[in-house]
Each structure stands twice: as C-alpha cells, then as structure tokens.
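Here comes my example:
=====
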Amino acid sequence: MSVEQTIRDQIESNNILLYMKGSPDQPQCGFSAQTVQCLMSCGKRFAYVDVLANPEIRSTLPGIANWPTFPQLWIKGELVGGCDIITDLYQKGELQNLVDEADQGATEQDS
C-alpha cells in the first residue's frame, strides 16, 4: 500500500485524527502540546499519528493536505487546520461542537 493510501485510510477510518509530533502523553513540540490540550479539553477520544515516528507520512501528508506544517487536525475526513486555528476554534467554543458532532457520528456508525 502506498503512503498516500495509508494516509487516506487513516483519515477515512478515524472521525477525529490528529497528525502531530510525539504523542498526546509526550508531545514533541509546543504547537502539538497546545493542540492536544485543546482537544483533550473537549473530552472525546481521538486518534493520532506521530509524524516523527512516521517520516514517510510526515513528508507526504503536506502535499495531500495542502497544509505545510504539523499538527494537523482532521475531523470527519476534512482538514480543520493547525495549532492557531484549533486554539481559536477552542476559545470560541466551536471546537467542542465539531468534536461532539464527530463523536456522535462515530457512535452512530458503530451501532
């Protein structure tokens, strides 16, 4: 399977997916740490991919996403954005709505 197909599969099979440097428990950059804090504050589970441990994904995803930096938050197959956008959405209360909707979708798909 190609790296592009792996990325597309990850995005399609996870309603809330964060491509980040490190892991939620041990972020490896300040932007990833800040994004994780915003997401965790929403209280829903999310999947993540450590781009430092997956250099092929790190080099390929920016071309697919048309977004050059990490972290990248994907919700229901759509790129939401990076740290600044996520932080802004969180402060406005809009991130909670996006995450809640995506989580409801996951529950409905599972049943």
In short: The chain is about 55% helix and 15% strand. The longest strand covers residues 16-20. Helices lie at 3-13, 30-41, 55-65, 83-92, 94-110.
